[in-house]
Structure formats: C-alpha cells, structure tokens
Amino acid sequence: MHLILFAVFAGLCLVGAINLLLQSHPINSALSLIVVMTSLAVLYLLLGAEFLAIAQVIVYAGAIMVLFTFVVMLLNAGREDRTLGSRAASRVGFPAVAVILALIATVILHTQGLGTARLSDGLSNTAGAANLEVLGSVLFTKLLLPFEVTSVLILIAILGAVALARHGDGNGERTDDE
Amino acid sequence: MSSFFAQEVPLTWYLLLSAALFSLGVIGFLIKRNLITVFMSIELMLNGVNLSFVTFAQQWHAVKGQIFVFFVMMVAAAEAAVGLAIIIAVFRARATLAVDRIDLMKL
Fold this sequence. Notes:
Number of helices of chain A: 6
Helix content of chain A: over 70%
Oligomer: heterodimer
Strand content of chain A: under 5%
Largest sheet of chain A: none
Order of helices and strands of chain B: HEHHH
Largest sheet of chain B: none
Order of helices and strands of chain A: HHHHEHH
Low-confidence stretches of chain B: none
Strand content of chain B: under 5%
C-alpha cells in the first residue's frame, strides 16, 4: 500500500516538475507546481508528518500558489520567447546539473543505515496525534522565541510587499488616489 | 501479490526524489525566460530540500527536521510575498517579464 501510494505521488511530483519546465505559459507552470506541492503533502503524510502535510496544503498550495496565479493574471503574462536564451545555460548548465544530481544520488545510495518508511509511522511510533503533540510542545516551549520572531518577519514581509507594489515611485510622493 | 502490497519503501527513494526535484528546479532556473517561472523554480528547489528534511526526521525519529521545514515554509511565504511585489514593481517600470530584457539596475 505504501509502495503504491509512494509510486503514484512521486510520479505525479516528477511529472508536475517536468511539466513546469516544458510549459511556455506561466499559468500552466503555476498549475503544475500546485500538483507538485499537493503530491508532496501526501508524501509528508506517508512519512508521518501530518502537521507539515496540512501546512503544505494550506501555506504552499493555498497561499503561495494563489499569490503566484494572482500575479500571473494581474500582469497578464503571456508566453515566453525562447529566442533570446543564452547558450551558456545549455552548454555548461545541463552537464553541471547532471553531475550534481549524479553526485547526490551516489552519496545517497552509498549511505548505510537508511531504514524503510512504514505507513503511519510517526515520530514517536504511536498514533498520529502524539506526533502533533511533540511538535507543538517543542515549538511552543524550546523554540518559542524563533516562532514569535517568525511572526514579526511575516509582518515585515507584508509591509514590504505593500510598500513595493503600491502606486507611486517609492520616494514618498503620493498619487492622487491614495 | 499480497507481499507486494505490504512492501515498505526505502527512505533512499524519498531522498532520490528530493534530489531530482531540486535538480529540476535548478534546470528551470537556468532555462526559463520568464521572471515568474524562474521564481517558481526557486520554490520547487525549496520543496525538494523540505522533502529531504522530512525524510531524515523520519529516519532518526527526531522532531527537529519537521520544525526546520515549518520555518522554511514561513520564510518561503514571506519571500513569495516580497518577491512577487518586486516582480510587480519591475513589470511596472519595464513593462516586460523577460529576464533577458531586465539586465540593468537603473532605468
């Protein structure tokens, strides 16, 4: 069962990622990226990370990709032209990426002691709720300060986004509609 | 056939999938000519790395890997908000999204 679920969703992941590269229209790339992220959420569930699976769907597939598709539609981004592409990317880039992938794969395949993943095998080897409890207690006791700093970071990001994307040239000059 | 259904998945496969996703993200970063799609490739790379964090958290029964992924997600959300705002600002100044035409810091 685990093998079948892994095969289906890992396949969906790879197909979505390759489709992202092949599509020339940004909205198609965005939709394939949503497929990749949703399949990754299922893989997180298989690895016993329920909270991250939900967060993946809500934050990535929900918030970030909605933002992406919204910007694609707002800017009315059309098909990209491939004529201006640099030759250096294909001459040096592809072999370099292939070498990196081969290197990582060799290291992974030669690493001893990697176990197997069982279905619903959480961190504490019990039911899923205990895993959530462990995660929550660590996040809200030992890591409370980084957690709160993250909220400040998000607030600054929101302010920055509004400041960057608003009308006007950013020198404090205001347009009439403000 | 029932032994096939009960088969478990080696964690190596998850790590290979994560490496493949990261490499596809790098390739997308190199070949895509649209600013938004280049940004999407960066998100793909982040997701590949997240998968390996979760896999190692499962391997060592440690909660730290999952917490790293949580913080990566939060930073990615902030990065997406600011990055897309920058893309909108660039589009407003240049009226194009092709990375070949956005090659000067000044107008």
